[in-house]
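Next up, a chain.

===
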Amino acid sequence: MSHFNTHAFETHAVHAGREDFIALGIHAPPIDLSTTYPVTDLDAGTASFDALVAGEGHAANSIYARLHNPTVARTEQALATLEGTEACVAFGSGMAALTAVVLAARVRGNHVLAVRPIYGTSDHLLDSGLLGMHTEFVQAEEIEQRRRADTALIVIETPANPTLDLVDIRAVVAAAGDVPVLVDSTFATPVLQNPATLGARYVLHSATKFLGGHGDVIAGVVCCADADAKMLRTVRAATGGLLHPLAAFLLHRGLPTLALRVERAQQNAMVIAERLAAHPAVACTHYPGLGTVRNAHLLGTQMRGPGTLISIDLRAGHDAASAVMRAVKLITPAVSLGSVDSLIQHPAGLTHRMLAPEAKQACGITPGLLRLSVGIEHVEDLWADIDQALKQGRAANITQAAA
């Protein structure tokens, strides 16, 4: 059980998962790279095997790395503390984490309700039927009405990817009744939002993003109650969606600076969002701190800050967006987010390309939409790069129109 209220978040971020270091006589997390573990006592080994296959978080013997790894378990303990949940289960990617939750939910039924927009690949997975589930995409206000006896899971992402709309977690949980609610909280991080305290059953993070924070880890985590974690571990053991211990080590290493990184990047984003809102090349700036997203009133209650992601609709559409992607010099034109460096990408052409055109239109994913993940660089350097790129994009579009 997490001692979430014992210390401030920043203190937990530094010390969570490290509580036994002094007793062990170490100062840095150990990395256990073993794939298998010696079984000298067969009866004890069999008991450990049975416990781990049944989803227990620990056993006397780890048996095999697909069942349990001490380095991964340390990272899970730390993240459960930061989210204020009893447990956390780590996976090889955010999509592996989502897959495990959906598979675990099948014991309840084969119907899923999801609120768009969500991450494009999450949308594609849920919509494809690959996991034997039928997904119905609805508005948050329709959940209670569209809930069925076989509804097994409700999926939301807030802030939404890529429009940054906010979804009222408490309202969704109330409308869900006894149906579990999964909240993808990747954009918010536990620094700015804790969905479990608002009633969410599962809190999912693509840990590749802010939690790792340096663009060198692919990982996904689900924070939840012990009982739900047991089922997720069972799915992970059976499907092999494990997180590599070296990735777990890097993820754990990034946590002490999580609050500092998010706060600095958020400071930058607030300045940049205000300037983008006044820029002649930009038709609309989507940012919770500007009040330009759905349910912006949840800022300050559900969400403790506006975050570090900004989306902009360019007046000149796709061609201008393409020109901006070519023109940036300091900012990296690439998918992903939450790294110490700033990234910019085109949702309609990249992260959300697999959505049908009508779904993109309904979600507000326009041809001229760009998503900016603001990093921790100096804000004036970032603005200079954005401004010059927007000017080049505007000029290129004017030249093309004249031709």
Notes: The chain has a mean pLDDT of 96. Residues 9-257 form a domain with the Aspartate Aminotransferase; domain 2 fold (CATH 3.40.640.10). The chain has two domains: 9-257, 258-402. The longest helix spans residues 379-402.
